[in-house]
Design a protein that fits this description.
- This protein has about 120 residues and is mostly helical.
- It is about 60% helix and about 10% strand.
- The protein contains 5 helices and 3 strands.
- It has helices spanning about 5-25, 30-40, 50-55, 60-70, 95-110, and strands at about 45-50, 75-80, 90.
- The protein has a 3-stranded antiparallel β-sheet.
- A hairpin with a 7-residue loop joins β2 (about 75-80) and β3.
- The longest helix is centred in the C-terminal third of the chain and has 19 residues, at about 95-110.
Length: about 120
């Protein structure tokens, strides 16, 4: 059963984790980039630019810009779908998997620190 937290605790958790992300030595991701990253890593593949755009309710160029940045950071990679050359597949990377795992660990650690 999931742990119940109050809205004030949820906001404190978001605040504290966001501060941790700003303070670490990793590049900052926008909310949109974070949403793309978490979608790619938490939902089963395949992921396409078109599918991510539809899921997030934005245009394909918006996703492409987010993926450009995330690709330069090594968090995701892209390749053309051999079965349908119109599609661009978004793939996980080791660096991205580690970043998402570290984020999860940070959230759990901060959650443990929440006052009752």
């Amino acid at each position: 059963m999931p742990a119940e937290i109050r809205p004030s605790q949820a906001l404190r958790l978001w605040h504290d984790v966001t501060f941790d992300l700003v303070r670490d030595d990793q590049p900052d991701l926008s909310s949109r980039q974070m949403a793309v990253l978490l979608t790619v890593y938490l939902e089963p593949p395949p992921h396409t630019v078109r599918g991510l755009a539809a899921k997030l309710g934005v245009t394909k160029p918006v996703i492409t810009r987010a993926l450009d940045t995330m690709g330069r950071l090594g968090l995701v990679s892209r390749r053309r779908d051999e079965a349908d050359r119109r599609n661009v597949l978004v793939q996980r990377t080791l660096a991205g998997a580690l970043a998402v795992e570290q984020l999860g660990d940070a959230i759990v650690a901060r959650h443990r620190e929440l006052p009752l």
